[in-house]
Design brief:
The chain is α/β, with parallel strands linked by helices and 319 residues long. The chain folds into two domains: 135 residues, HprK N-terminal domain-like (Udp-n-acetylmuramoylalanyl-d-glutamate--2,6- Diaminopimelate Ligase, Chain: A, domain 1, 3-Layer(aba) Sandwich); 154 residues, Rossmann fold, CATH 3.40.50.300. Helix content is 34%, strand content 29%. The strands form four sheets. Strands 1, 9, 10, 11, 12, 15, 16, 17 and 18 form a nine-stranded mixed β-sheet that branches. It starts with a strand and ends with a helix.
Amino acid sequence: MRQFTKHITVTDLLQVKRLHLELVCGKRYLQRNISSANINRPGLALCGHMEHFLPDAIQLFGKAEYGFCVKTKPVLLQAAIINMLAEGQVPCMIMIESLNPPPALRKACLQAEVPLLTTSLSLADFSAELRRFLDEQLAPVTHVHGVLLNVSGIGVLIRGEAGIGKSECALELIKRGHILIADDVVEVQKRWGRYLVGSCPEMLKHYMEVRGLGILDIDLLFGVGATLDETNIEMEVVLVPPAKNIDRLGVDQKTTKILDVDIPSLTLPVTSGRNLAVLIEVAARNQQLKARGILTAQQFSKKVMNRVKRNKRNHAEEA
């Protein structure tokens, strides 16, 4: 799996209506890249403390930073900001609540070729919206081969070697009322550093390829409710040829790693007469129980061990 690094520009940021952004100065520098989802409050950096400054992050000025700028002598303020902006590739600086940036701040931004923006939103509202947008746009991305469905509210990634029956199994699940997200190629993003979200590349949306039937339009066949744009990936099911070493009790929870995030993984052997769609449906429901701390296999195993210990103790007392 190859991981892709994404970036946007300050121009892209300005076009996001929910952020309510306006350009103050630096129109010539709007093509600066934003490649980090971090947001930095530069209060300490303005005072010369650069130890924890994030030089590749958007610099967000709240009322505290604005108050410092207003009270500081223009010459000192301009020097401090130029020194701060020289540390890295700061994409832009943003003032909240439409605060009017001091002239020294504008001059420093123009000298450092960094665009200066304002937003009418409050600090809390803007930070939340900006973090959400940056996470959507800049989250690490990879592509995996498989089929992704939402089964009983659980995002299930079905994987296996070519020709083993992934699409046929997915088609049966769709027929049973579950929802298709992607067939063949699944685009996976890591959101908020720990959640995997799967979607379908634009060209392949709501299409499936089934051997013998060709390309199917799932929206036309089953209705628009049969597909979704994206879902969290909460478990993986791997279809494999018949094997003798499959765990029958399911006591040990296996996992797989995608973008450094572990998700539960279940191996299902494909044999004649098995209804894989039903098995995956039940596996999704069982995963919901596990998420609530109900581990059926471990509870059963514990009961068996307790019975064995009790029988041994009884035999010892009789002897």
